[in-house]
Predict the 3D structure of the following.
Amino acid sequence: MITNNTLEILGQKVIPGETKTIRLNIAKLHTMTEMDIPIIISRSIHEGATVLLTAGLHGDELTGIEIVRQVVRRRIHLPQTGTIICIPVINIFGFVNQSRQFPDGRDLNRVFPGTPNGSLAGRFAFHLMNDIVPHVDYVVDFHAGGMSRFNASQIRIAPGNPELENLARAFQPPFILYSDNIDGSFRKSCDEIGVKYLLFEGGKSIDINHDIVEDGVAGIMRLLDNLNMLNKDFSVDDIRTEPIFITESIWVRAPYSGLFHSQTKHGDYVTEGEVLATISDPYGEVEEQVLAPNSGYIINENQAPIVFQGDAVYHISTRLKDE
């Protein structure tokens, strides 16, 4: 809570103009080693909004962790007005194990808003929603595609929310994708209590892609500038690029199993019937084409060298806003 302009989180007070790292601890390893989640809080002497930057909800999504780390390292997290809270690694257990899940096998992003007496993942979700999120106005949560599935830089928002559209547009990702909130997700729980939430997707798991990192860091700077929070030591490019709004999309699935030879990449615009990839056997006898079912933008590509029949290999837009 904020009392006389003092922010109190997890029993610790942060005064205007102060930067402090506090630690959330809800469990130990079976070795009895403490697993603390650092929460970096930076406050301006000037009043303003509170922005929460989070990553590592899935512990193997390293690009998002690197984005928030660089925000701290470059000192972008020191606001001109308001407060910026950074949690570079939410799922510290998954990060240590390079795993998507919590040690209890649960996907943390399916157990929100959590419970104080449930599973380990549920307990952590409860503390995040009750100890941290009530203090903030905006959340930017960074994610990546699954193993070998590379997402183009994109912001995902629920449809029908003009304020979220404006925030996403201020971030200026290449793509803004409309997608409904999922039950049990961090995004839906934030929405239900009125906290504005942007979901950033970019890159793939167990990988750090520096182009995606730069997209994420630049987007944060533009968003903070839009909220009058960007420190005066930084500036953003005056060139405004209108993102591509995607309202509908489909997954293209591998019609065969075999070696996968992609001929297109994330971000490309393809036309209906265009060859996206070929799938071959390892013996030089069979080579089949994968064709685009419609014209649209590739927002996710499978970068695996081998695919099985039915695997998702491309995510392609089917309809853009105002079409």
